């Protein structure tokens, strides 16, 4: 993260004695990126953050990836996953079903009602988009109240758990990186402050405001880490002698935060603006963009829907969250759909969409897009809800028609 934050008690001078009320010393822990050479936080624990009393394997949800072959654009119907009351037995971590993935990023979906176990992802940062529902995200840095439309960015190895709140199930779209996830560099000054042209800024970000302390013994923490399983991953359950939420204070530039998509100020123009104006975050070899309700192109001869485009270096994954996505009308895509537009196939508006958009002044659409610079393979959940027909919607006929 770009800016400094302090929560709870810390010492005036770093790396000096900090005593508990009983006279013992707090344990100082540096959580830092890029080997002590990038953003970090200093945390003060009541206990010893290294202490574990047991370890056992955690069998991760199915991480098998299948190539998109033969190469076709696809429509994945996420809302067909977790039918009926299934969410009552699901949590937002162990219940994730893998939709798409490659060596840089994995996209999973869960509809949950149970609290997750304590969890840390040691493979990279997570950006979890909350499609619907509400939750408290409990972390070693403190708690965050999150809900519909929030992107929740959780740095690598942050111990946390998802606790659904409110009457409806929690629908989470988890973007798990094998790297860090941050605002685009071009939005930031060389010292990390958001610049004037950025579509959001520090005031739009929410972070823990006070320490979160809990008591407990023999507490299990589920760790996702590099390994030799599918996707190069493995899981381990560490059992901690004391509760991991024992941080009385911390400071630094590295911590979980939330940003709501409604706070994204869209950039518009007289003619069609390219997708980079919709960018919200970036990771290694992928970007996250969002399409929010906005006034559209106002040149008298403007064509508000996108031109056909061949992203020769990217696969383009759009998750349609709300509203009506003008360019996709007639394709069967609706709320809860994902479109997969792979590199190697030129995509654009469905037949008739260009003509229908002429003269339109406002698009009521909400979508989250992930563009990857390496091809995406299909996870088991992606295969399970592939409609099998989308590829033929521009021509109106296909092999099964
Ligand atoms: Fe596109």
UniProtKB/TrEMBL annotation:
Homogentisate binds at residues 325, 347. CDD domains: cupin_RmlC-like. Residues 284-382 form the Homogentisate 1,2-dioxygenase C-terminal domain. Keywords: Dioxygenase, Iron, Metal-binding, Oxidoreductase. The active site is at 272 (proton acceptor). Its cofactor is Fe cation. It comes from Geodermatophilus poikilotrophus. InterPro entries: HgmA_C (IPR046451), HgmA_N (IPR046452), Homogentis_dOase (IPR005708), RmlC-like_jellyroll (IPR014710), RmlC_Cupin_sf (IPR011051). Residues 84-260 form the Homogentisate 1,2-dioxygenase N-terminal domain. Fe cation binds at residues 309, 316, 347. GO terms for biological process: L-phenylalanine catabolic process; tyrosine metabolic process. GO terms for molecular function: homogentisate 1,2-dioxygenase activity; metal ion binding. It holds the Pfam family HgmA_N. This is Homogentisate 1,2-dioxygenase. The keyword Metal-binding applies. One of its GO terms (cellular component) is cytoplasm.
């Amino acid at each position: 993260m770009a800016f400094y934050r302090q929560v709870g008690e810390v010492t005036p001078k770093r790396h000096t004695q900090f005593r508990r009320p009983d006279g013992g010393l707090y344990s100082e822990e540096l959580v830092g990126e890029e080997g002590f050479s990038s953003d970090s936080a200093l945390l003060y624990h009541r206990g010893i953050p290294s202490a574990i009393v047991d370890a056992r394997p955690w069998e991760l949800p199915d991480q098998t990836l299948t190539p998109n072959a033969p190469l076709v654009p696809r429509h994945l119907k996420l809302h067909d996953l977790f039918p009926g009351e299934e969410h009552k037995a699901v949590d937002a971590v162990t219940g994730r079903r893998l939709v798409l993935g490659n060596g840089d990023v994995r996209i999973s979906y869960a509809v949950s009602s149970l609290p997750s176990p304590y969890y840390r992802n040691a493979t990279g940062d997570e950006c979890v988009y909350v499609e619907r529902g509400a939750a408290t995200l409990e972390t070693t840095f403190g708690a965050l109240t999150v809900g519909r439309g929030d992107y929740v960015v959780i740095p690598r190895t942050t111990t946390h758990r998802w606790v659904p709140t409110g009457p409806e199930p929690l629908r989470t779209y988890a973007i798990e990186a094998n790297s860090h996830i941050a605002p685009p560099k071009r939005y930031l000054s060389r010292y990390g402050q958001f610049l004037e042209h950025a579509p959001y800024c520090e005031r739009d970000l929410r972070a823990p405001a006070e320490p979160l302390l809990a008591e407990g013994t023999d507490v299990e923490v589920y760790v996702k880490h590099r390994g030799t399983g599918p996707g190069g991953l493995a899981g381990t359950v560490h059992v901690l002698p004391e509760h991991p939420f024992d941080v009385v204070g911390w400071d630094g530039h590295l911590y979980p935060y939330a940003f709501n998509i409604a706070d994204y100020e869209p950039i518009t123009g007289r003619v069609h603006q390219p997708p980079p104006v919709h960018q919200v975050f970036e990771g290694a070899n992928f970007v996250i963009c969002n399409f929010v309700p906005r006034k559209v192109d106002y040149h008298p001869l403007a064509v508000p829907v996108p031109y056909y485009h061949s992203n020769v270096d990217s696969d383009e994954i759009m998750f349609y969250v709300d509203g009506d996505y003008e360019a996709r009308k007639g394709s069967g895509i609706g709320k809860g759909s994902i479109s997969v537009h792979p590199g190697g196939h030129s995509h654009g508006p469905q037949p008739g969409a260009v003509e229908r958009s002429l003269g339109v002044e406002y698009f009521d659409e909400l979508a989250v897009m992930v563009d990857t610079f390496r091809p995406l393979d299909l996870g088991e959940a992606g295969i399970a809800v592939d409609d099998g027909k989308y590829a033929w919607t521009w021509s109106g006929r296909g092999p099964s028609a």
